[in-house]
Amino acid sequence: MEIQNTGAKHISAYREQMGLEYEKLHPEIQKRFDFSTTNNIAFIGKGTMENIWNGNKLAVFILKLLSKTNILFPRAGQNIEYEIHNYPYLDKFNREVHSMNRVFYFPDEEQRFDGTATYSQTKKHIVEYLGLDHRMVFEMGLTAENGAIRFTSGKQFAFVCGLKLPVPKLIRGDIELLEWFDDSEQKFYLDLSVRSKLFGPLFGFTGWFNAEYIDFSGQKIPNKFKPTREEKRE
Questions:
Q1: Where do the DUF4166 domain residues begin and end (predicted)?
Q2: Does pLDDT of 100 surpass 70?
């Protein structure tokens, strides 16, 4: 599908944050992240995570707690079927958001790592809410590296009993994700890791996927990926 930029109100959050640096990305990476409610393009990637790993026993315990709301999970494995779903839409606060739903099909069960991202006009960069209940949020950094895009998590906050609490640097899980396009293979590749200064390596995965671009005009995010709670605070 040929993606058209209508020049209307909303543009890709990634293009907005990166500005001219966005043009340094591989053309397929630019196309991959150029979704908004203006062009109404959704992205679905399907492929294989060649390796999914986790850390020590303490890390696995933390991952078990996070998995209850689809924030990471305690499973490890090789050659696991994988999907990534990105749907642009307006949330109940009328903000331009997009889903970041990652699905891992283990032989005996499905595991999820869900998020919802929006460009913060106040902070001038993307923030991503983790899980379907938006109980955590982090500030997202973006850089171009030899055509690839690197994501790094910054400050993190947890929403507990109505309070917005900063997660201390020492214990927070710092996320790094590198995503690139291989011209010879005609596939997208990614390498994600989550590490804590106190607890060490927590979780990560590496693999590849193919791209499918779909017309999302007049459609709604699938119920299985719809947040159960939406948080306005950034």
A1: 25-209
A2: yes
Task: Please state whether the predicted TM-score (pTM) of the whole model is above 0.85.
Answer: yes
Q: Confidence band (pLDDT; 50, 70, 90) for 192?
A: very high
| 71: CB partners within 8 A, 6+ apart | 113, 114, 130, 131, 136
DSSP state, residue 3: -
CATH architecture of the domain covering 13-214: Beta Barrel (2.40)
Residues sharing a CB contact under 8 Å with residue 154, sequence separation 6 or more, in sequence order: 138, 139, 140, 141
Q: What is the residue-averaged pLDDT of the chain? A: 93
How many CB atoms lie under 10 A from the CB of residue 190? 22
SS3 17: helix
- Where does residue 110 fall: left (phi above 0), alpha (psi -120 to 50 degrees), or beta otherwise? beta
- The answer to whether 149 and 179 have CB atoms below 8 angstroms apart is yes
Provide the pLDDT for residue 9: 66
Distance of CA 187 to the CA centre of its chain: 18
Rounded-to-integer distance, Cα 43 and Cα 35, Å: 8
Cα separation, 66 vs 140, whole angstroms: 19
What does the pLDDT average to over 188-213?
96
Domain ranges of the chain: 13-214
The Cα–Cα gap between 177 and 151 comes to 5
How many Å from the N-terminal Cα to the C-terminal Cα in the chain?
A: 34
**Can you tell me the distance from the alpha carbon of 139 to that of 157, in angstroms, rounded to the nearest whole number?**
9
Q: Rounded to whole angstroms, how far apart are CA atoms 94 and 19?
A: 24
